[in-house]
Write a structure and sequence with these properties.
The chain has 181 residues and is of the alpha/beta class. It has a single domain, classed as 3-Layer(aba) Sandwich (Rossmann fold). Strands 2-1-3-4-5 form a five-stranded parallel β-sheet, with helices on both faces. It is globular, with a radius of gyration of 16 Å. The termini are far apart.
Length: 181
């Protein structure tokens, strides 16, 4: 029983990633080009599980040569937004695109700071998507959680969607970072 459930979870999550293949297109290319051409950092923001995924993405980008940090959207509302510059790129992550804290900071980032905004969301008609320069569809058909409550497949797909955007120059790979001892 447990092995069958484990295999089913893996199948659902794998299918969620495979479903992204058909959605990797012009918007994804535009997002990568914005990151490649930026002179600043990639600043990732997200709440809850999306925030945890954002921290992982920031770590991966930094490890592969793209300066990046995680900015908690609630902290941004209380003064940390001052770290954003015009040269930075914001990567906002929200499954539904309706996260209040993110949707409060994006207009300030866009209007006052002039930074480009890329969003990863499962809702292309969300306020977050509408405020973004580029929106990447990371929607999933279903979560691996039997009750559909825990974001399982959706968090996996968000992390997977950024895998090619991991280096400042698309030709770079993980091997371009200094050797680890």
């Amino acid at each position: 029983m447990i092995l069958e459930q484990a295999k089913e979870v893996l199948k659902i999550e794998a299918q969620g990633i495979l479903d992204l293949i058909d959605r990797v297109g012009a918007e994804f290319d535009r997002a990568v080009q914005i990151i490649v051409k930026s002179k600043g950092r990639v600043i990732i923001t997200g709440m809850g599980k999306s925030g945890l995924v954002g921290r992982k993405i920031a770590s991966t980008l930094s490890s592969t040569g793209t300066p990046s940090i995680f900015l908690h959207p609630a902290e941004a509302l209380h003064g940390d937004l001052g770290m954003v510059t015009r040269d930075d790129v914001i990567l906002a992550i929200s499954n539904g695109g309706n996260t209040q804290e993110i949707n409060k900071i994006l207009p300030m980032i866009k209007k006052d700071m002039g930074a480009k905004i890329i969003s990863l969301t499962g809702n292309l008609d969300s306020p977050m998507a509408r405020m973004s320069d580029v929106t990447i569809d990371v929607s999933v058909e279903r979560e691996a959680c039997p009750m559909g409550l825990a974001p399982t497949t959706s968090t996996t797909s968000r992390a997977a969607a950024t895998s090619r955007a991991r280096a400042r120059r698309p030709s770079e790979t993980c091997t371009s970072t200094p050797a680890r001892t």
